[in-house]
Specification:
Structural class: mainly alpha
Protein name: Phosphate starvation-inducible protein PsiF
Keywords: Signal
Distance between the termini: 31 Å
Organism: Bradyrhizobium uaiense
Helix content: over 70%
Number of strands: 0
Shape: elongated
């Protein structure tokens, strides 16, 4: 029971930090990009550093062991994928570019 509470608290705090991290790159990119710039160029500027979300998930799951650690990593990466998908939708990225954006963002 104690493990479950610790896992839920750490998952909640991680979700908040991932959400904040996912939102931070999009604000400067939208204000810095001129109106004449095409969407694909602005989306590449807003993409976060590859591996940053995975590293955040690994650090959050580090204190856990075994199946709890595995479950935490799966939940965290799923949330990171969802955050990247929301970011792509907000930036109106469609088609193969969306798939590439989400893949590079969540990795």
């Amino acid at each position: 029971m104690k493990r479950l509470v610790v896992a839920l608290v750490s998952a909640g705090s991680l979700l908040v930090s991932v959400a904040a991290f996912a939102q931070s790159p999009s604000a400067p990119a939208s204000t810095a990009a001129p109106a004449a710039t095409p969407a694909p160029e602005s989306t590449s500027a807003a993409a976060p550093v590859p591996g940053a979300k995975r590293a955040a998930c690994q650090s959050a799951a580090k204190p856990l062991k075994g199946q709890d650690r595995h479950d935490q990593m799966q939940l965290c990466m799923a949330q990171a994928h969802l955050d990247c998908l929301k970011q792509a939708i907000d930036q109106k990225i469609v088609g193969p570019q969306r798939k590439d954006f989400v893949k590079s963002c969540a990795s």
